[in-house]
Amino acid sequence: MLKLVEAVIEDMDKQLERIVKSMEPLDDSQIWSKARDTMNSIGNLCLHLAGNERMNLISAIGGGPFTRERSKEFTTEGGISKEELIRHLTDTRAEAKEILSRLTEADLDREVAIHYGLEDWNRMLRVQAEEDETHEIKVIGKLLVAVAAHYGYHAGQIVLLSKLLKDTGEHITGQYH
């Protein structure tokens, strides 16, 4: 496996472990609670991370079908248990690892198209684009770094929200902050 791919997977797996450890002491109502109406719940962030990983790694790089409804990641208010969210994250990761393990050195310089649904694209960029304008082109090597950074950013939010919801006095991720 390529060194860059190994590093990306290692980092994302570490972040996934932190997410799971952070979620363990919480119940389903806490997973879906929001500190403010304008903020995301842990459940929303989990859906968003899985959606982003699927869109970029499984669909764009791996050629899998594009099935993401990005807006729903942020508007869902429950109905998915903590265990189901964790399984969704881990199943997505397993599928992504399979795809990434097949990448070659030449693939890292290859461009891929990342597709978005029209409604999500227009809402995200605050534009009125046409259907054929709802994609961006990225080089795989740079995309891997961006996806890992995005994952770490939201993993940190999940850790913080977990600590705010249930402060056990312990370092739930195993690190001292």
Give the secondary structure arrangement, pairings included.
Blueprint: H1 3-23, H2 28-31, H3 42-61, H4 70-75, H5 82-100, E1 111-115, H6 118-125, E2 135-139, H7 140-165
Antiparallel strand pairs: 1-2
Helix pairs in contact: 1-5, 1-7, 3-5, 3-7
Task: Describe what you observe in this structure.
- The mean pLDDT is 94.
- The chain is mainly α.
- It has helices at 3-23, 28-31, 42-61, 70-75, 82-100, 118-125, 140-165, and strands spanning 111-115, 135-139.
- It is 59% helix and 6% strand.
- The chain is built from seven helices and two strands.
- The chain has a two-stranded antiparallel sheet with strand order 1-2.
- InterPro entries: DinB-like (IPR024775), DinB/YfiT-like (IPR034660).
- This is DinB family protein.
- Residues 13-158 form the DinB-like domain.
